[in-house]
Amino acid sequence: MIKTQLLKNKVILKSLQFLHARYWDVVMQFWRLLPASFGSTQINKEFSIGIVTYVDRYERFFKPLITNLVKIFPDTEFIISVNGYYERKIQDEYLKDINAFLGKFRNVKVVDFVEPQSLSKLWNLCILNSSTQKTFIFNDDIKIKTSFRKDLENSGILKEEIALINRSWSHFLISKETVVKNGWFDQRFPGVGNEDEDYEARLVINKIKINTFRIYSLKNIVFLTSNFSYGKDIDTVNTKYVKQNKIFFDSKWDLTKVNSPSYHYVEILNGYIKLKEGMDTPFFYDPVLLTKENLHIIKS
Questions:
Q1: How many CB atoms lie within 10 A of CB 85?
Q2: Cβ proximity of 262 and 272 under 8 Å
Q3: Strand pairing of 236-237 and 162-165?
Q4: 288-291 long-range CB contacts below 8 Å, 24 or more apart?
Q5: In angstroms, rounded to a whole number, what is the distance separating the alpha carbons of residues 33 and 52?
Q6: Cβ neighbours for 258, distance < 8 A, ≥ 6 positions apart
Q7: Handedness of CA 100, 220, 46, 208 (dihedral sign)
Q8: Beta strand 48-53 with 78-82: parallel, antiparallel or unpaired?
Q9: Cα 2 vs. chain centroid, distance in angstroms?
C-alpha cells in the first residue's frame, strides 16, 4: 500500500510539473503583444539590472530574456557580464554575435571576456559598472511575466539595501552601500557555486539583515549546465556547481551543526559558521569607485 501511494504521489507531482510548465509556455506568448523596444538614453536613477551570461545559454535563454526585459524596462540601465569560454574559436564568434545583438539597445553596457571568469567577479563588475546605487542581479535562465516590473516595484524591495527574490540568490537586489559594509563577492572562488553562501555568512557576521520578497511573476528555471565555461571535464557538485568552489569554501569556513561560542547561525547553510584564520575577504576594488560615475567600463 505504501509503494502504491508513493507511486500515486509521484504521478501527481509529475502531472503538476507538466501543467506548470505548460502554464508558463502560455504566459510567455503574451510578450508578443508588447511592442519591441531598444531602450532609451533617459535612464531611471533608482536601480540598474545586471545579468551574467555565457555562450551555452545565449540563444535559448539570454536573447529572449533581455529582449523581454527591455520592453518593460526601456528606461533602465543594464549591465551584461559576458563570461569567457574554454574554446577560443567558439568564444570569438560568440562575442561578435552578442556584442552586435546588444549594440542595438541604447540602455545596455557590456563587460565581456575571452577567458573564463569567476561568477563572483562577474557579479562584482555588474555592481561596479552600475551608474545607480542599487542593482538587481538576475540569472540569465529566468522567465518573467509582462507584469514583472509592476510586481517588482510594488513589492517594497526597493526600500531594502540588500534583498532576495523568492529566497534565492538567482535574483537579488544589492546596493553599493552594502558592498562598502560587507565587501565584494569573493573572487577567489574560481568558478560557480558557494559564493552566495559565503556572502550571506558575512552578512550575518556583519549584522546586516537580508529579507526576501515573493514575486510570482518570476520563474527560476534552474537550468542544469552540462557545458561549463571552464572546460570539458569540470568536476561538479550537485551537477551545477564547480567542485573547486566547494573546496575553497571549506578552506575558508568552519561549519558545524552545533551552536558554539564565536560561531554564527547562517540560514542558507542550516548550520553554524566561523571564518578560518587568515581567510578574510580582500577588497578587490577601491571603494572610491563605488561613489564615482563610471565613464568607462571597468573590467579588472
A1: 24
A2: no
A3: unpaired
A4: 289/128, 290/128, 290/176, 290/179, 290/180, 291/176
A5: 27
A6: 272
A7: negative
A8: parallel
A9: 41
> Residue 72: how many CA atoms within 13 Å on its side-chain side?
19
Cell digits of residue 75: 528606461
Q: Report the relative pairing of strands 108-112 and 162-165 from DSSP bridges.
A: unpaired
Distance between CA 226 and CA 220 in Å, rounded? 18
- pLDDT (tens digit per residue) in 99-146: 999 999 999 999 999 999 999 999 999 999 999 999 999 999 999 999
Q: What is the pLDDT of residues 151-186, one digit of tens each?
A: 999 999 999 999 999 999 999 999 999 999 999 999
The cell for 127 is 555592481
Matching residue, cell 546605487: 133
Q: How far apart are CA 254 and CA 141, in angstroms?
A: 32
Asked if 294 contacts 176 with a C-beta cutoff of 8 angstroms, the reply is no
**pTM for this structure?**
0.92
Contact between 171 and 49 (Cβ < 8 Å): no
